[in-house]
Specification:
Elements lengths: L15 E4 L5 E5 L2 E5 L1 E4 L5 H9 L4 E4 L6 E9 L4 H14 L5 E5 L6 E11 H16 L6 E4 L10 E3 L3 E6 L9
Antiparallel strand pairs: 1-4, 1-5, 2-3, 5-10, 6-8, 6-9, 7-8, 7-11
Length: 180
């Protein structure tokens, strides 16, 4: 579908989210009000839409939560200034925690990364717990300059991420690990 390796992300292509110039809906969640600029489009995510996104004509996002309320990836949305230092610390921590497959993609903003930790079928609640644990461990070594997904701090409609633009770096475990 892409000219970059996104096979491990396992994007649900049955629908996508498109960013609009206006507020699409107002959502109250846990005593906070969220203003959503992304509109859900219940059509198949096609190559043409992805090409328009990569060209910068539109901004397209994908859901992290699939139809069966499972997540395939835990994602760190890094918005800091030192991507090399973040990548180095994050990969060491993730290897130490036993995660062997993860990929960092560049987002639209230079220097910002989306680090996808390829976890596989995980319930939404378990994914949120894992994300909080990883965030806490990473915060012990670095200033907190990221958001974690999935998260119960946001409505489910906000557990989306824009499609990646380019691979920053990737880590793949030993070839035998996929047979475990």
């Amino acid at each position: 579908m892409y000219n970059i390796d996104t096979t491990l992300i396992k994007i649900d292509t049955s629908h996508y989210w498109i960013k609009r110039d206006k507020i699409v809906q107002k959502i109250s969640h846990n005593g906070r009000t969220f203003f959503d600029k992304f509109e859900r489009v219940d059509e198949k995510l096609t190559n043409q839409i992805v090409k328009e996104h990569l060209a910068g004509n539109i901004t397209v996002a994908h859901s992290l939560i699939n139809r069966s309320n499972k997540v395939e990836n835990i994602v760190i949305d890094y918005n800091g200034r030192n991507t090399q230092k973040f990548w180095h610390r994050a990969q060491l921590l993730l290897r130490e925690e036993g995660y062997i497959n993860f990929t960092a993609y560049e987002s639209k903003t230079p220097g910002h990364l989306h680090l996808y930790i390829h976890k596989g079928h995980t319930t939404f609640q378990e994914g949120c717990q894992i994300a909080k644990l990883i965030s806490m461990k990473l915060a012990q070594k670095m200033p907190r300059e990221w958001k974690m997904f999935p998260s119960t701090d946001f409505p489910k409609e906000f557990n989306i991420l824009t499609l990646p633009y380019k691979i920053y770096n990737k880590e793949r475990g030993a070839s035998w690990s996929k047979h475990m």
